Amino acid sequence: MLSALARPAGAALRRSFSTSAQNNAKVAVLGASGGIGQPLSLLLKNSPLVSRLTLYDIAHTPGVAADLSHIETRATVKGYLGPEQLPDCLKGCDVVVIPAGVPRKPGMTRDDLFNTNATIVATLTAACAQHCPEAMICIISNPVNSTIPITAEVFKKHGVYNPNKIFGVTTLDIVRANAFVAELKCTPKVEFPQDQLTTLIGRIQEAGTEVVKAKAGAGSATLSMAYAGARFVFSLVDAMNGKEGVVECSFVKSQETDCPYFSTPLLLGKKGIEKNLGIGKVSPFEEKMIAEAIPELKASIKKGEEFVKNMK
Q1: Reading across the β-sheet that carries 261-269, which strands appear in turn?
Q2: Rounded to the nearest 10 degrees, how much is the dihedral formed by the CA atoms of 149, 151, 154, 159?
Q3: Which helix (H) or strand (E) element contains residue 288?
């Protein structure tokens, strides 16, 4: 499974910085002043795939936008501040990336973030449903297992739901897997003895906590998440621009398991998801891990769906 998901590190990013890459993607970042939002906006500004970059947050966006606007790349940048300016930020956008929300702190789980981030994501995606209903929506805000169902239910409420255009950005797990495997082996297709595989998977699963602890309360995995978010956006824009064979993993509406949402490799196209490539061939060990994850995943999905149903 790990080898099946691996791909040349940074391929999408390298393409995005190519002088031959041409596109006119209009991208919005909601939560652009935060720890993920600022480096993510920098990476997007640095790409010729992006022609317009609109930045939204409840504080500091004019300054972030002014800073980025001094970079000599093609994308125009404008900052929008506060709820009253959010509609203008979203109008005409092709892609909206949402890293908004509170970060993890030592001792916190992703689920601890739910109460705050659920409201933030519901509010922002409602604005997306109203002002850019055709845009690709990329959710970074944790817990993604709940914030994607929240986004879907909000879009359903507004009558503009398209499951092929709503993505939970799980790319950081792939990026980490690639990085950690590369530390142990230098070829993309590798096999590990069971004890080493168990240790490796455990590290990938707890990598966010590793960063939170290393930063000693000063933040969470912001830089690597910004990289992963940019990689996903560049792959998505490539596919929207007609490039064939673009595959990324994402947490989306799915029929691959008995969970209504699941993260699997997706073939991306001009209109979002072109084909769900499924889980693929897995070992008995991986099969057991998936089965063990399903109950918790179902509970997280239901929690997100119920949150929207109970909104006033």
Answers
A1: 76-81, 50-57, 25-30, 95-98, 136-139, 166-168, 246-253, 261-269, 272-276
A2: -100
A3: helix 284-309
* Contacts (Cβ under 8 Å, ≥6 apart) of 29: 37, 40, 41, 44, 53, 54, 55, 56, 97, 98, 99
The pTM score is: 0.91
Cα–Cα dist 92/269, whole Å = 20
Quote the tokens at residue 47: 């790409």
Which residues 6+ apart lie within 8 Å of 123 measured at CB? 83
Mean pLDDT in order along the chain per 10 residues (312 residues)? 46 49 84 97 97 98 98 97 98 98 76 88 98 98 96 98 98 94 76 89 92 88 97 98 97 96 98 97 93 96 97 82
User: Cβ of 141: how many Cβ atoms within 10 Å?
Assistant: 28
Residue listed under structure tokens 């601890």: 112
Q: Which amino acid is at 251?
A: F
Instruction: Select from 236, 208, 238, 213 the least CA-distant residue to 223.
Output: 208
Cα separation of 121 and 152, whole Å?
Answer: 11
Residue 104 DSSP label: P
Give CA 54 to chain center in angstroms: 17
